[in-house]
Structure formats: structure tokens, C-alpha cells
TrEMBL record:
UniProt KW Repeat keyword: no
Entry protein name: MYO5B protein
GO biological process, one term: actin filament organization
Cellular component GO terms held in the UniProt record: cytoplasm; membrane; myosin complex
Keyword Nucleotide-binding: yes
Binding site for ATP: G60, E61, S62, G63, A64, G65, K66, T67
GO molecular function, one term: microfilament motor activity
Similarity comment: family membership: Belongs to the TRAFAC class myosin-kinesin ATPase superfamily. Myosin family.
Residue intervals of the Myosin motor domain: 1-184
Length: 184
């Protein structure tokens, strides 16, 4: 398949705006510069032409911009699929990120918010190739962090959030008060 190497610039760039989406929409792979929109367009065209499911795998190191690349691909699909103003799937899918990050992210020596889970986002299209909705599944990849913590690292964020709430009556039975003085 197609491989695209992208770098996270850690800032918004004009190459991801709606004008760029329309520039890549309908183009053949290789006619334009390499871009996440070129990969998304190729998957979208093959889905429509072959009437078969397509996959885009976004992989990389911590902080490489995987979530941002997935967001841009979803933005492409919602725009070219004619659903951007109707459903805003991108915003709905990404709205779940803070909850998932609390449960699946931790502080490591390289990254204060390092993801320890994989995401599988399935976007459903109708017969006219408009987005119907999306499902997201998460897979915990680093289960060892639950019982072991490396030096200078933190456990999953949810643990510290629970400790910070330990004085609330509904958390009394969890026995978290003895952990209250952990470094946050």
C-alpha cells in the first residue's frame, strides 16, 4: 500500500485548511505533493470505485502527531463526503479524547501525556458516500504500567484524578486517601 511519512510541526499550518482539502479531492495519487489528504483521497476513491472497506493505519512514536493526522483524515472525509456541516463527526469523535487520555495516558520520561493505548476508528458511509457515523474502540497496549512504574514516570492519569477526588464521599470506600501525597 501507500506509505506517507509525516512530521508533527507542533503548530497549525495552512496546509491543512479547507482549500487544501479541495485541492486534493478528486486528484490521483502522485499528481500532488505527499499529504495526509492524498492518502485519504485515495482511500475514499477506492471505497467508492471498488465498494470495499478501506483502512488507513497511522503509526508512530510518542508525540509524532498520530492523533492529529487521524483528525485531518476525518476532516477530509467529512468535507468531501458532504457531511461536514451536518454531523461534524470529527468533533464528536475527538470529544471523547480527554476521557480516553485520562484512562490510557501516562507521564513518561519522554512525554508528559504519552498514550498507552491504540485507537481503532471505524467511519460508516451511506451509499452516496456521506458519513453516517463513527465508532471508536481503544486497546490498552501497556498493561504493565498498571502494576509497575518506572523511575521518573507516573501511572495512568486517572489514578491521580481519583486520588485528587479521594475526599469526596462517593470515593470513600475506594481507600485512596493513603495515596493522596503522591507526586502529581
Amino acid at each position: 500500500g501507500i506509505v506517507l511519512v509525516a512530521i508533527n510541526p507542533y503548530e497549525e499550518l495552512p496546509i491543512y485548511e479547507e482549500d487544501a482539502i479541495y485541492a486534493y479531492s478528486g486528484q490521483n495519487m502522485g499528481d500532488m505533493d505527499p499529504h495526509i489528504f492524498a492518502v485519504a483521497e485515495e482511500a475514499y476513491k477506492q471505497m467508492a470505485r471498488d465498494e470495499k472497506n478501506q483502512s488507513i493505519i497511522v503509526s508512530g512514536e510518542s508525540g509524532a502527531g498520530k492523533t492529529v493526522s487521524a483528525k485531518y483524515a476525518m476532516r477530509f472525509f467529512t468535507t468531501v463526503g458532504g457531511s461536514a456541516s451536518k454531523t461534524n463527526i470529527e468533533a464528536k469523535v475527538l470529544a471523547s479524547s480527554p476521557i480516553m487520555e485520562a484512562i490510557g495516558n501516562a507521564k513518561t520520561t519522554k512525554n508528559d501525556n504519552s498514550s498507552r493505548f491504540g485507537k481503532y476508528i471505524e467511519i460508516g458511509f451511506d451509499k452516496k458516500y456521506h458519513i453516517l457515523g463513527a465508532n471508536m474502540r481503544t486497546y490498552l497496549l501497556e498493561k504493565s504500567r498498571v502494576v509497575f512504574q518506572a523511575e521518573h514516570e507516573r501511572n495512568y492519569h486517572i489514578f491521580y484524578q481519583l486520588c485528587a477526588s479521594s475526599s469526596l464521599p462517593e470515593f470513600k470506600d475506594l481507600g485512596l486517601s493513603k495515596y493522596w501525597n503522591l507526586p502529581v
